[in-house]
Each structure stands twice: as C-alpha cells, then as structure tokens.
Amino acid sequence: MTIDLARFHAAFFEESFEGLDAMESSLLALDPGTADKETINAIFRAAHSIKGGSATFGFTAVAAFTHILETLLDQMRSGTREVTQDLVNRLLKSVDAVRDLLEAARDVREPNLELINAHRRALEDTLAGASSPAADLPAVIAAPLPPSRGFRIQFTPAPSLFRSGNDPRHILRELASLGHLEVEAHCQESASFRDVVPEDCHLRWDLTLHGAVDEATVREVFAWVEDECTLLIESLAEPKPTKPVLTLIEGGKAAMPVAVDKLASAPARQPERKPAGNDASSSIRVSTEKIDQLINLVGELVITQAMLAQQAGGLDPLICEKLLAGLSQLDRNTRQLQESVMSIRMLPMEFVFSRFPRMVHDLAGKLGKQVRLVTVGESTELDKGLIEKIADPLTHLVRNSLDHGIETTEARLAAGKDPVGTVRLSAAHQGGSIVIEISDDGRGLNRERILAKARESGLSVSDAMSDSEVWQLIFANGFSTAEVVTDVSGRGVGMDVVKKNILSLGGQVELSSVAGRGATVTIRLPLTLAILDGMSIRVGEEIFIVPLNCVVESLQPSSDQVKAVAGTGRVVKVRNEYLPLLPLYQSFGISAEHPDPHRGVLVLVESEGKKIAVQVDELVAQQQVVIKSLEANYRRVRGISGATILGDGRVALILDVGGLVRDLHQRAAA
Length: 670
Description:
The chain is α+β, with helices and mostly antiparallel strands.
C-alpha cells in the first residue's frame, strides 16, 4: 500500500509556518548580551522540525537550506559561537528565506533564487569563519563530553504519527549516522518489514546504538516526534555483540543497512504502555467553512426558537404549563449553544500582535531609531473575521508611529527623553466591544502644520476648530504631512484607508495627542460580525434594527425643539446642540404613522464623531439579532448594512448608521 503524502501537505505547511513564527519571535527576544540557552534550544527545535518535515515530504530545497541554518544554531546552543546582534539579524533574514521557500513549495512556484542563494552564501560564510571552540570559553564548556558506550532505546510511535504521513524510518537513518545501530521491529504482521502497512498496524522499535555520542544528541533526533510517541532511552553498561544486517529497501534502492535480530510478532492489540505525552491531541484543525456553516445553522435555530417563543406568548400558562417550561428551557439551551459556537471563531489578539515585533525591529533599523514595542492584552479575543481584517489597518498605524511619531535618538536626548522610544499596543473588552489602542511617546501631532497642509489641500478648516476636529483631518483622502516621500510613508495613502476599513467593520476610530508626549489612536470594534446587539424600531408597518453601539439616546421632542433651516431641511435642538433631522420614512419611501416629529420618537445616533436625529414611530425592543448579508442574498441597498429575521418570521433591515450620517451631513454642507 502506497501512502499519498500530498493529502498531508496542508497540515505540514501550517505547522511549518507556525514554527517559523516561533523562531522569529524567539530571535527577537534573544538578548545578545545574555543569550538565554532555553530560547536558543527552542529556535533550534523549530528549525529541526521544519527540516525533518521537509525531508519527509520531499521538499529538498527547504530541507537543505534549513540544515545549514540548523548547523549554525547548533553551534550557538553548544556555546561554540558567540551570539551577536549581527548574527541574530542574519538568522532573521534566513527565516525569511525559509518562509519564501515554503511558500514557493506550497504555491508550486519558483522561489526567489537570487535572494535564497544570497542568504545561503551568507550562512556558509558565517560557518566557514567559525572560531576555535575553546577560544575564550570556560574550560567546563569547551571540554568535550565523555563518550558513551551507547544507548538502549525503545521507540513506540503513536498511531497519529502514521496518520499524519510521517515516516519514522527517517529517525532510524539519522540514528545510524551517529554510530552502529541495531534494530528490532515489533509489528502485527511478520512477513517482512517491507510488507508492513503503517496505517493498519502499530509498530515498536527496540534499538541499540553503539558509539561515542551523548544522550542529548540522541534525544534531539526524536525532537520532532516527541509529542507523538513513547520513548525510553537507557545507557548501556557494556557493548552488545553485532547482529546480522538487514538492508531496508525503499523505492527499489537500498535505503540504509542496519543490524536486525528478527521481526517479532506483537499481540493483536496495542501493548499497554504509559504514554510519554498526550496521545490524544488537545486540539483539532477545522476549516473555517465548516465553522461558518455551524454558525449559520445555530443562527437559524435561534430564529426558530424566537418564532416558537412568540407563538407561545398567547397560550394559557395553566393549560400549557409543561410546554411553556420546555420552551423556556429551549431558550436557555439555545442561547448557551449560540455563545459556545460563537466562541469557536474567537481568536486571541496575539494572532495580530505577533507580527509587529519583527516589523518594528526591521523598520526601526531602517529609520535609524531605537524603539521598544510593548503589547498588552494579547489574550483578548476577537472574531476571526475581524482579526483578519484589522491586521492591515494596525500595520499602517504602527508604521506611522515609528516614522512620524518616534523621534531620532539625538532628538529624544535633546528633549530630555529616554533615547529608546516606546510604541504600545493594547487590547481590552469594554461592554460588547473590543478597544484597541496604538500609542507612542513621540513628538505628538502638530496642530498648525496639519491646518496649513489642510488649507493647501483645499479642505475647509478654521483656527476655531477643536483639537479632535483637527486630528480627524489626518483621515482625509490623500492627506499627508510628510515632507519627503519614502518607501515608509508620505504618499498620501494609508490613514484614509485605515478609517474606511474600520468603519466597514462597524467600528469607530478616534485620535488624541499631546505635543511632545505622543499620540494615541483608539479603535472600537464589535466582538463579532455574526450577531448584533440592536434596538428594533417601527416606521409604519416596517421594523428596522439600529446597532446599539451607535445609539446615544431617544426622546420625544416638543414642537419648539424642531426648527426648519432653509435649504438643509429640519434640525432639532437637544441641550443647546442643533442636530440634523432624518425622517426615516422619507429615506425609504414608506408611510409613517406619525409624520410630525413632535408626535413620533427621535433616536439620536452617532458615527465618526457626528450625530443626527432619526425620526421613527415607535421604539419596539432591545434585542440580539443574527446578521444576514443583504448583498449576498439580494443586492446592496443604500443606508442598509444587512438584515435579520424576527421571531414572527418577518425580515427586518439593519440600518447603516455611518452611511446615513455621512449622507445627511454632506447634504447639509452642500
């Protein structure tokens, strides 16, 4: 039976990229002055796993490059090579090269050979220039380890190792390179070793390794399968005699000669053993399509439950006591199920924050600045869909902090500040939202410079504008205060895109600054795009949903509060503030029960720092609704962001408050 390894490629690539991310974060945390041995070991193990997996799946270019990288890391962890900042930078670039090779293998394309070869030559030159192991090192480190007579090894792979497509025989080959290897293979079938079907049986190898090798080196051979096997290693007191040699045949060629006594039959069931680690994985990989399908089904269940609850509202509680109790229990179970399913899509902000240490490291070096990155609240969870879409806006904001905010070392010293600037990323839950802040302790925003640039760009501004209004000018289309265009910033793109992307996610963005002390960008987002806390309102016979995070207050105005303004419609005065009035029935061409504002209800909503008063007939209820895409099921409708199904089966449209606010203010300004 031939195993098709291609079906395991996706898992291999995903795990390899995770390993590269772990290597990168560990390298960035490595202090050349006091290099932590455990950190270096973690980097080595990640490289070793990638090399082993690449060799297993036939990605020879990845395995060859990673082997050179692994050799250099082995020198670092043995203490024969000093850890310097230049070496860390070289290793970071090598991680980029491995990533490019993996992406090329995954996408079936040619890698950037010029870049790969340049990094490979640099690694080889570094290895060629290695100093003597004993030079400038304490004797206890420089002295060679005493040779061992050998080890007796019992290696029992877990079934999951075979199912993942890995071939344990690669371990035997690597052990054979360390000395003289004797092998006993125990399996359920005993015809011959080459007839064994790994997926249909359980194997155990009893190995005897003779040679001058230390236990740490032997254990390192098993590092990439340590979580998927039982492993016992015992030192040999006396060497054992050599046993007859059997050559393993692979693809018609002799793969490796090893000493074998016999292929003994094992019991029909897997032998009882104490696992070295967790045989059953604590997590499984599930495609997002399956999760989305589950969320949609739960959403339909919530809607059905709401319909049943509404229909049961007219039943006699004395006659239908058991039915109503069952429906009440169904309501509780449905809500708990909905919360549990929604939590499956929630990911920690660490998935986004983890990309920034490397970016800050590289960009600070390019700009000639000293910058430390501080992250807070990495465990705060956010919907996976939002996680993916918020990454690019955050990248723009962090780059701006480094380029525009943080000063040069000389400028910071002249201002009496710490020569090392700080960029801080934080995330926290507040109510039903998540708040993300990007702050720096740099020079802050220059009000006069922003106003001058706005006038040059033809924007309508005045010196009487508040600071918050001036800061919002930065988000104008094409606005930039950079005097020199570079590959980092100054092209007038970025901040306007940041705001549009955040608004498209139902979020809000605010900017604050203190001259000489830094600036802070605050982003407020809903926790998920699948459900919404909303206020249901009625206009005529139609029900609409207003996102609750946009609602400021509601009121029934008196006739003297509503004023008509020539050319701009009507406004309503609320606590000495005049707000544009939007009769919702006019916007959507429907009949209203109360066309006069003072007989209806006004819902004050806010978006992008601007408020309007939406005129409706009645406030119905506050409820959580399941969002359905109107565009995917019908078409895009101006002023509407989605739809939901109510308990009585009717469709209710969800208002696009941001779009309504922008349209009304633009008409008022025109």
